[in-house]
Amino acid sequence: MFAGITPANALAQTAATPQTPPADPATPLGEITNTATRTPRRVNDVPATVTVVPADEAQRRGARDIKDLFRNEIDITVRAAPSRFSAAGSSTGRAGNEGINIRGLEGNQVLLLVDGIRVPNSFSFGAFATGRGDFFALDSAQSLEVLRGPASTQFGSDGLAGAVSLRTLDPSDVLGAGRSVGGFVRLSADGIDDSVGATVAGAARSDAWQGLLLLNGRRSHETENRGTNDAQNSSRTTPNPQGAEQQNVLGKAYFQLNAAHRFGATLEALRRRQNTEVFSARTLPPPAPAPLPATAALDLDARDTVRRERVSFDHRYADLNGTWIQKAETRLYAQDAEVEQRSSEDRYTAADRTRDNRYRQKVQGLSVQLESSFSAPFAQRLAYGIDASSSTISGVRDGTVPPAGETFPAKPFPDTEYTLTGAFVQSEIEAGAFSVIPALRFDRYKLSPSAEGYIGAITPLSDQAVTPRIGIVWRFADHFAPYAQLARGFRAPTPDQVNNGFTNVAQGYQSIGNPNLQPERAESIEAGVRGRIAGLRYSLAGYDNRYEDFIAQQVVGGTGVPGVDPLIFQFINLAKARIRGVELRGEWRAGTQWTLTAGSALSRGYREVNGAREPLNTVEPLRTSLGVRYNASTWELRAQALHAQGKAANRIEPASSTPFAPPSYTVLDIGATWKPLPPLTLSLNLHNALDETYWRWSDVRGLPDNSAVKDAYTAPGRSLQVSMRYDF
Question: 186, 725 in Cβ contact below 8 A?
Answer without folding.
Answer: yes
